[in-house]
Amino acid sequence: MRSKRKTNIIVYSISYTLLIAFSIIMIMPFVWMILSTFKDQSELMRFPPKFLPDKFTLNNYVEVFSSVPFLRYYLNSILISTVAVTLTLLTSSLAGFAFAKYKFRGRNTIFKTLLGAMMIPFPVTIIPLYIMIYNLGLVDTYLALIVTGSVSIFGIFLMRQFIVTIPDDLIDAARIDGCSEFQIYRIIVIPNIRAPLSALAIFSFMSTWNAFLWPLLVVNNDEHRTVQLGVQYFTQRYGDLMHLQITAAAMAVIPIVVLYLLLQKQFIEGITMTGLKG
Hints:
Blueprint: H1 2-36, H2 41-44, H3 59-67, H4 70-101, H5 107-117, H6 122-135, H7 142-147, H8 153-163, H9 168-176, H10 181-192, H11 194-209, H12 213-218, H13 227-237, H14 242-273
Helix pairs in contact: 1-14, 3-14, 4-8, 4-11, 4-13, 11-14, 13-14
């Protein structure tokens, strides 16, 4: 018994040591990037490099915001991502509820067709999608950036896999008590899928926030330019100023990290608990 316990302690110690080591290796580039935003150009290019800056300064951030309308890009990305994520959560949960709890002709065929559509790469759909947006007169508008990210096949699949685990007796009892279908969705379904909704919110936010190719096609001016286009524009304009480039890149990454830190518990629960029943 003692031998087995001692073996378990050794195994756990080695496992946690390796996990901590790999975690440090993975997080170090991000920490280095953040610390580099507080260094000036000469200090950043110094060799051998120093991990901590000699003097913490916010001049890089001031220069980034004053050189280009970066605040406008930030607000655009926040607006577009927030609306797109909200619509994605709504459409995915509603569609997932329908596929999981309603029986109608062609349900499985439609669901399998949607899953098959996930294998089609986005670049294949860019031209017909752009033609549709152009014909609707939405080029260079917020709607062109929001509509394309408001529906997620992966989100529908994720919600369906989780909602199907909700007992049918619970929903039937709500119908007997006089609840409408929307009340069942709002009172019973939504509280039971908060974990996968949080996971989907992070995935959707990352996808919309990091989008580059589609905004590059449909946006032509600073009024609707997103933060990713702003970083690319900034790099072209100030390509020799490495300290400002790394500051702009860090500012584009920070919101995703903050969102994950706020929703990490629900994110982990949503990933581990979803898909247990098909």
